[in-house]
Design a protein that fits this description.
Radius of gyration: 18 Å
CATH topology: TIM Barrel
Strand order of the largest sheet: 3-4-5-6-7-8-9-10
Order of helices and strands: EEEHEHEHEHEHEHEHHEHH
Largest sheet: 8 strands, parallel
CATH class: Alpha Beta
Distance between the termini: 36 Å
CATH architecture: Alpha-Beta Barrel
Strand content: 5-15%
CATH superfamily: NADP-dependent oxidoreductase domain
């Protein structure tokens, strides 16, 4: 299985389905990456806060897949915001991963009350210029946060990784990102704690294509031009999550899935949430 990629605004590209690794520990994630690469995964998403970057690096090396075939994302949390803290933060992440560079470096949360994400972003720009990351982006940023970066910094984020699924479709965010050449990446793409996959509508649509509700939802992300990073450590589920490129949803199906929206999950408001 070869996963299609989407172009980023700096000339690189990102596989449209990736492997989410939270909350796997080092041992679990290393084992999972070996299985996942055998199935065709090449995009791995981690973060300093996850505490599993060492395992991610070990799994990559054990897989036998050349480094250049991987797309590795890591994120720096609030510990590394302000001044030039991200310089040491990325060096520490690279040390744990055993890599010379990552493919994508994200600010994990904007934490606007600290008023440090712009200065952090300017440090990210320098890390990009130094070749320690191939692309830079953000996570959990609202359009207002992105507008400030556009006004005060030089590089437009390549990616905005946000909570996004049919229950929480983030239409305004997606429209803003698309208008400014930013790829939207979905965390929790299959929903969490909202019974999304138990939806009769998803079962009905899946029956038309011989696909599971989860595959229908991941195909919805693909149809919308999003990147999705579902999480699993189960080999069968890993295979299922990747098996979404041999069918296409009808426009009516896409609209029906989008109609499952119930609004943002409580507590996930990045003006007040984050670490």
């Amino acid at each position: 299985m070869t996963v299609p990629s989407l172009p980023l605004n700096n000339g690189t590209s990102i596989p449209q389905i990736g492997l989410g690794t939270w909350p796997l520990n080092d041992t679990e994630v290393a084992r999972t990456i070996i299985v996942a690469t055998e199935l065709g995964y090449r995009h791995v998403d981690t973060a300093a806060k996850y505490g599993n970057e060492t395992g991610v690096g070990a799994g990559m090396r054990s897989s036998g897949i050349p480094r250049e075939e991987f797309f590795v994302t890591t994120k720096l949390d609030g510990t590394y915001q302000g001044d030039d803290r991200a310089v040491a933060g990325l060096d520490e992440s690279l040390g744990r991963l055993g890599l010379d560079y990552v493919d994508l470096l994200l600010i994990h949360w904007p934490l606007p009350a600290r008023d440090q994400y712009v200065s952090t972003w300017k440090t990210f720009e320098r890390l990009l210029a130094a070749g320690k990351t191939r692309a830079i982006g953000v996570s959990n940023f609202k359009p207002a946060h992105l507008e400030r970066l556009r006004a005060e910094a030089d590089v437009v984020p390549a990616v905005n990784q946000i909570q996004l699924n049919p229950r929480v479709p983030r239409t305004e965010y997606r429209e803003y990102d698309a208008a400014h050449g930013i790829v939207t990446e979905s965390w929790s793409p299959l929903g969490a704690g909202n019974d999304l996959l138990a939806s009769p509508e998803l079962a009905r649509i899946g029956a038309q294509y011989g696909k599971t509700p989860g595959q229908v939802v991941l195909r919805w992300h693909v149809e919308l031009g999003l990147v999705a990073i579902p999480k699993s450590a189960t080999p069968a589920r890993l295979a299922e999550n990747l098996d979404v490129f041999d069918f296409a949803l009808s426009p009516d199906d896409v609209r029906a899935i989008g109609a499952l929206s119930v609004g943002a999950a409580p507590g996930v408001d990045s003006d007040h949430t984050g670490h």
